[in-house]
Every structure is written in C-alpha cells, then in structure tokens.
Amino acid sequence: MSDPSLPRGPHELELEMLELRPALEAVLMVADQPLDHLTLAQAVGHPPVDVQEALEALAAEYDEQERGFELRAIAGGWRYYTRENVAAAVERFVLDGQQARLTQAALETLAVVAYRQPISRSRISAIRGVNVDGVVRTLVARGLIEEAGQDGESGALLYRTTSYFLERMGLGSLDEMPEIAPMLPELDEMDDELFAPAAGPGPTSEPAPEPESETESDSEPAPDPEVDPAERDDDVDRGAHA
User: Fold this and answer.
1) What is the pLDDT at residue 172?
2) Taken in order 210, 212, 218, 224, is the CA torsion positive or negative?
3) Assign residue 3 a region: left if phi > 0, alpha if psi is -120 to 50, beta otherwise?
4) What are the phi and psi torsion angles at 149 (to 5°)?
5) Could you tell me if 158 and 119 are in contact, meaning their C-beta atoms sit under 8 angstroms apart?
6) SS3 call for 161
7) What's the predicted TM-score (pTM) here?
8) What single-letter DSSP state applies at residue 206?
9) Tell me: the pLDDT tens digits for 28-44?
10) Position 12 confidence tier, pLDDT thresholds 50, 70, 90
11) Phi, psi of 206 (to 5 degrees)
C-alpha cells in the first residue's frame, strides 16, 4: 500500500469535484480551439448535461453584463471571443496594422473549395481559369483548407475546408453558408462547359482560307549564276571556230 503522504503522479490523481463555472472559465481561457461540452465535462469532472447548461448560462451572463468578451458556440464547440464593439482595441494592440490579409485570388479559390468540396486543384483551376497551385498551398499553410483523400478516377488529391475555416467565418457548420445567388450559372452546367471536348467544324462552317502564297507574276526572276570571265571568253572562241 502506497504512503498517502507521498506525491502521486498524474495518472494516480483522483478527479476532484471542482466548482463548475470557475472550472469551465479556466479551461476555456487556455483553449486554442472550440471545445465541445463532452470534452469540457471530462476536464471539469461534471456531468455533460450540467456542463451544457452552465455554458449557456455563462454566455447569457456575459451578454447581460456587456463584458469585453463573449462565450460563443461555434464550429461544434465553445470558445471565448472578443466582443465586436471593442475589437478595434485588440487589433491595435496585437496587430499594429500588420495584419496579413488574403489576396483576392486566395478568397476566390477558398470560395470554390467551400462550395464544391471535396475538389481537386485541376478542377479549381478549370473553374477559375488560372493555375492555383500556389494559392492552394497558401490556404493549406493557413489552416483554412486540408487534404480530403484522393479522387477515385484520377487519383488527384482532394481538398476541403477545415473547422478553423468555420471558426473564422463564424459558422456552426457548412449548412449555414449563404446560398449562391440565383443569377449565377449552375455549377454543374459550368463543369459541363469547362470539361466538354472541343467540337469540330459543323457542316455549314466555311473551310479555313488557304494561306496566301506568292504567284509567278509577283515573284522576281532568279539571277543568273555568276560565270568566270575566262570561261566566257573560251565559249566565244569556240563559237568563232565552229
């Protein structure tokens, strides 16, 4: 039997029944991504149903007190966020005008992936009309998209958006993404046009004109080959004796 006075390792520590709300606040304060109520329940040692109720109560309390932060349910979990009306102060302190924004090309590529995922780079390039290899690498490096297996036919890598994308966009799931405007062409029709084989000339099409060529009347006569003067004199002499 072990001596109770000796320190025990983490695997031997018994989970204490901590006060629920302060424990949740402490864990959420150090979280670098949204945590679901099951994960939080395991951390604080309370039943998941009690944790869910406490999270909702904390979020309502922060809103009522108009704190500078809020507890938001997003991307399948809970996380602290700066309240929007004081976000400018945080931007000035942390970013100091050096925020790296996505380029227009990156935003367009991200939109294609978001609405057509999973999708390969070649199909993204076909939709956008430009090579997107560098932009895709940038979006992967920023954690906004990730690999999602391979295409069954071509074997090309497929890409999809990440949970970090949902978090940055303020979405709970992809179902909350806004619908594409009705005036835009259907994406399936765009694919048909982009990947359809080029059609040959129809029966009524006119034959391509023959390339223009020089006529004999326009061409200059070829110059006579140069003749050695000695050979010319020999020919004259032979003609005189003939």
Assistant:
1) 87
2) negative
3) beta
4) 90, -165
5) yes
6) strand
7) 0.43
8) P
9) 999 989 999 999 999 99
10) very low
11) -80, 145
